[in-house]
Amino acid sequence: MDTSFLLADYLDDARQHIDALDAALLDLEGGLSEGAELDQERVTELLGSLHTLKGNSGMMGYGTVQHFVHQLEGVFKRLQESPELLSADLLNALFESATAVRTAVEHIGTEPQPDLSQETRYLESLAERRSADQPDRRGRARQSAPAAPRNASAGTTGNGKASKSGILKVDFERLDHLLNLAGELVIHKTKLNQIVKNTEDLVGAEEIFGELPATAQMIEKTASELQEAIMRVRMLPVRHAFQRFPRMVRDLAKQKGKDVELSFSGEDTEIDKTVIDAIGEPLLHLIRNSIDHGIETPGVRRSSGKSAAGSIHLSAQQESNHIVISVRDDGAGMSASRIRRKALERGLITTDQSLSDEDLHGLVFHPGFSTAESVSETSGRGVGLDVVKKVISDFNGIIEVKSAEGQGTEFTLKMPLTLAIIPALLVEASKDVFAIPL
Fold first, then answer.
1. CA nearest to 282, candidates 234, 327, 224
2. What whole-number distance in Å separates Cα of residue 323 and Cα of residue 331?
3. What pLDDT, in 10s, does the model give residues 410-423?
């Protein structure tokens, strides 16, 4: 029996639950920094997600992951009972646990089950630790919160009845096949309309054909609606590409000793799943570039009159049949003089060339170009922005950069909403035929 589809379904579901874990931890960390009370409802939602992941792992026979997630559940249940246990150290440990379970899940099916024994033992110690062993983070009298109901199960409504899902998971290749068939149908209905028109012009008696012209028009209408419906099925909100970045920003900022706030707008803008899959890597490089090169350390920002925490904003909006995605930070910006000096050293320009700041900023996309003085684990080899431009170009998109030294940098990506068939007007001029998208 072929179980590959079960593995693919498990991995897709597991990734969503781990994303939910990351998001919950980021929310809890934000609440801790603001001195807010523990969000009990958020923890309850997370426990439901973890319970599902644990059950699915056990069903698939992945006992190591199942036991690890079980211990992770125990920590959050203990946290519900004693909210005063929440601390920065505990959150760091839980973030590391989230990374461990994600790594373990990604290795399933390609390698032997990973060894999580050390991490599991650590989680066991966290789950069993008494509140008396931990200082109260708010310095007031400790009061245990009521425990969450032990018999509550995920996937049920308040009246105990199982909730029905309105989502059906379908292999993306099947949608691709359907779209190709719809495209063929559109082509054939266009030919049919042309045949009907030519025959009418030739005979000159429309009544001879009876309902043929009307039928051809209905086929055209239905084929167009079918094509549009299949295209809509392939469309997903761009948040599916955005949601992977908050955890990465948090970890990288801490590694670099910086404070970075990530914000979004236009997450509901829908684009083709193929495009979503493609823009993930370019956005990753741009955000890492902003943290590594753009955002300054808190001390430097304060000395220049800025807030200690830098900001990165991702936005998406639809313009005609394109999506425009912006990555903007309020960091140090690009130094045109520094770019020019590096370009001269590499022989990309000559001393007598007069280039605008915009032209100089465009040089950062040149393969191997970097203004970094040293190479780090995240940047410095001049690879990132080269990769970004290549991916965007492969999808017939464009990328632009605007930067003001000391104020920040904005990268703008413009890509087609979908790679499927779109209506076009054919124009013939000087024996050449041009297709103009409608």
1. 327
2. 25
3. 999 998 877 666 67
What is the DSSP code string of 105-129?
HHHBTTBSPP--HHHHHHHHHHHH-
Written as one letter, the residue type at 380 is G
Going through 259-299 in order, the beta strands assigned E by DSSP cover: 260-265, 270-272
- Alpha-carbon distance 326 to 401, whole Å? 10
What DSSP character marks residue 156? B
Length of the chain: 438
Backbone angles phi, psi at 223, to 5 degrees: -65, -40
Structure tokens at 359: 């032209």
Residue 208 burial (C-beta neighbours within 10 Å; 0-12, 13-18, 19+): exposed
Residues with Cβ within 8 Å of 41's Cβ and at least 6 positions away in sequence, in order, are: none
d(CA 173, CA 240) in angstroms, rounded, equals: 19
345 near 369, Cβ under 8 Å?
no
From CA 346, how far away is CA 155, in angstroms rounded? 60
Q: Which of 83-97, 117-131, 149-163, 199-213 has the lowest mean pLDDT?
A: 149-163
Query: What SS3 string covers 196-211?
Result: HHHHHHHHCCHHHHCC
Tell me the C-alpha distance between 383 and 292, whole Å: 14
Q: Measure the CA–CA gap between 312 and 303, rounded to whole angstroms.
A: 20
Give the Å distances, CA to CA, from 274 to 234, 240, 316, 415: 8, 12, 16, 11
Q: Which residue has the tokens 């970097």?
A: 370
Residue with tokens 């493609």: 278
C-alpha 217/C-alpha 199 separation (Å) is: 15
**Residue that has been written with the tokens 């009972």 in this structure:** 81
pLDDT tens readout for residues 12-67:
888 889 999 999 999 998 888 888 888 888 888 898 889 989 988 888 888 888 88
- Is the Cβ–Cβ distance between 64 and 104 less than 8 Å? yes
Distance CA 178, CA 172 (A): 10
408 with 330: CB under 8 angstroms? yes
**Residue where the block lists tokens 């966290």:** 126
